[in-house]
Design goal:
11 helices, globular
Length: 222
């Protein structure tokens, strides 16, 4: 059991962009700030409220930098993330992956846009991707988070029940989608990574287990 009385999880399921790797907002100084200043970014508010998809958000933003590109988002992400892995991967997440590996907790990934945003050679050289068993990419699946199909498919691939998983994602709508499918969820707040990681550690720990930092929110399934 965890500290809140629920069963300890067998699988920690991570989003990739914004959770494992830093957001574009952290890598580029622009007037659009997304979760770092949502009141000043109307387009981000529309993405969070699902008036547009996150993919559409980045298409529009990337078009400001690459208006003539065949795929502005792909060009933008390639330019921004084509750098040393250590500069873009969150060290807090690497440390957590090391800890979960020592504790025997399986780590898996669930992302909407890995192949949609990044070229194959970049994916191949990112060693952190190999830490996940597996990293499920929905780029060409025909459905995306937060749709129920995304989580149902993921549970099937992982061959586990929803009760065995704790999900970690930075998008509130994805957290809500996972909850609706019976998956415990922790929102990763990009403005408070340490606090969010602490909440995930608490959600994964058995009763009387590891202490965690304050911050973030643990969402039990509906």
């Amino acid at each position: 059991m965890t500290t809140d009385g629920t069963s300890a999880a067998d699988v920690a399921l991570f989003d990739f962009g914004g959770v494992v790797i830093k957001t574009p907002f952290e890598l580029l100084d622009t007037e659009w700030r997304g979760p770092f200043d949502p009141e000043a970014d109307l387009l981000w508010q529309q993405a969070v409220s699902e008036e547009i998809t996150e993919r559409e958000y980045w298409h529009r933003r990337a078009s400001e930098f690459h208006p003539d590109a065949e795929d502005p988002t792909f060009a933008f992400m390639r330019e921004l993330y084509d750098t040393d892995e250590a500069r873009i991967v969150r060290p807090e997440i690497v440390a957590l992956l090391d800890e979960l590996d020592r504790r025997g907790i399986r780590t898996a990934g669930l992302t909407n846009d890995l192949a949609a945003f990044h070229p194959p050679e970049w994916i191949e050289r990112m060693t952190v991707i190999r830490r996940f068993d597996p990293l499920i990419d929905l780029s060409h699946a025909g459905f995306l988070k937060p749709a129920a199909e995304a989580f149902e498919y993921t549970l099937k691939v992982l061959d586990v029940d929803a009760s065995q998983v704790v999900f970690f994602d930075d998008q509130p709508q994805n957290v809500e989608g996972a909850q609706a499918c019976g998956i415990r969820s922790v929102r990763c707040d990009p403005t408070d990574i340490a606090g969010s990681v602490g909440q995930l550690r608490r959600a994964l720990a058995p009763a009387g287990g590891l202490p965690s930092s304050s911050g973030g929110e643990v969402h039990p399934p509906d």
